[in-house]
UniProtKB/TrEMBL annotation:
Domain named DUF4179: residues: 47-140
Name under which the protein is recorded: DUF4179 domain-containing protein
Pfam families: DUF4179, DUF5643
Ranges of residues in domain DUF5643: 221-334
Coiled-coil parts of chain: none
Keyword Transcription attributed: no
Bilayer-spanning residue ranges: 52-70
Domain of life: Bacteria
Gene3D superfamilies linked to this entry: bacillus anthracis domain, Conserved domain protein
InterPro entries, sorted: DUF4179, DUF5643
Alphabetical keyword list: Membrane, Transmembrane, Transmembrane helix
Length: 362
């Protein structure tokens, strides 16, 4: 018994850890090879085959690791520090993204690019009525500094640069591994399918570039609203409400006379939505894109919400201003050049909009 105990204490955990990482690397290379054949044809066949390869590799590795960890508590402790990452969408806090992943509405990419010891994997893409959602996994050979990748990816549409609003959130898995979800707000003139280019920049000048064809999901129900009101110089026009398994969105346009975007309240509109039973539909906000037209500042946006249940027959929508207490923004000129703009909105006054109802046909 004593001899066996000494063997466990001297278990070569570093060598095993290296072997695990090497195995993962081999699996990733194999997945890359499969992806090449997938691009050239037999889309479903190769995708299924790729999934089987991946699942088989994981099953074998998991069996070996569990057996080893029973023998070595030290190895079990080491393995507990290795982050296990599945679908970033499925592991998120977003009900809509979880539903999209569960119902097979996302495009699974799995493409990895490595620059300067940092590997970025574009995991999944969802294009629905709410906008474009991206998930990616970042792994580095060395510890990653805070905000190393800035605020996410820039994007192009069919090769042309496009400025827009959205959000970016990182989740730290370990000192060298992170997952990220980026939301890109869409405008009404964006095509239903196009080539999406993505460019990510690192602090030390690294650049990762991805390009993938994407297509908007088809099972979207659009309800025309055409509601408008004017309050204290702010003009609000709510065009429509869209529903799908992935969520709900409200499309609107707002405007106000002025010259300075930071002093315009028309870009700070949000919506509270409750159903016929008084239950509030969770909002995920979202920015607005604005431009100057003559003497007015005009904003457009799609505000995002969780999916609604099938029993919902009516919604009450209440617009309101969510005035910022600090911040700033980015302004683009006619040549696409950007400049930072500081915060000036501390003196903005709230207003009260009227609520309106939307019938949901069953």
């Amino acid at each position: 018994m004593k001899e066996s105990h000494e063997q466990i204490e001297n278990f070569p955990k570093e060598q095993v850890r290296s072997a695990i990482q090497a195995g993962i690397g081999q699996a990733e290379e194999q997945m890359k090879d499969n992806k090449v054949s997938y691009k050239h044809g037999y889309r479903m066949s190769n995708r299924k085959r790729k999934s089987l390869y991946t699942l088989s590799s994981v099953a074998v590795a998991f069996g070996l690791l569990v057996a080893s960890s029973y023998q070595s508590p030290a190895l079990a402790s080491t393995l507990s520090q290795i982050p296990i990452i599945g679908s970033v969408f499925a592991d998120s806090n977003s009900v809509g993204l979880k539903q999209a992943q569960k119902n097979g509405l996302t495009s699974q990419i799995g493409e990895t690019q490595t620059v300067n010891g940092i590997s970025v994997t574009l995991d999944e893409i969802l294009y629905d009525q709410n906008g474009i959602s991206l998930s990616y996994i970042i792994k580095s050979e060395k510890k990653l500094g805070e905000y190393y990748l800035g605020t996410g990816m820039d994007y192009t549409i069919n090769g042309k640069s496009s400025g827009g609003s959205g959000s970016y959130e990182e989740k730290v898995q370990s000192a060298t591994t992170r997952t990220a979800i980026q939301e890109i707000n869409i405008s009404e003139d964006m095509p239903n399918s196009f080539e999406l280019g993505l460019i990510l920049h690192g602090k030390n000048g690294e650049t990762w570039y991805f390009s993938n064809p994407i297509k908007k999901i088809t099972d979207i129900k659009k309800i025309p609203i055409h509601h408008s009101q004017n309050v204290d110089g702010i003009s609000l026009k709510v065009e429509d409400l869209s529903l799908s398994k992935t969520g709900m969105s409200i499309s609107y346009e707002s405007s106000e006379k002025g010259e300075d975007f930071e002093l315009s309240r028309a870009g700070d509109i949000e919506f509270q939505v409750v159903d016929q039973d008084g239950k509030e539909i969770t909002s995920h906000s979202g920015g607005a894109s604005g431009q100057k037209i003559k003497d007015k500042l005009v904003f457009k946006s799609n505000k995002k919400f969780d999916p609604i249940n099938s029993h919902v027959t009516e919604l009450t929508v209440t617009p309101y201003l969510f005035l910022p207490s600090d911040g700033g923004g980015v302004e683009y000129d006619e040549n696409g050049e950007s400049k930072d703009i500081g915060f000036k909105g501390g003196s903005l006054k709230p207003v009260k909009f009227k609520s309106f109802k939307v019938k949901i046909a069953q």
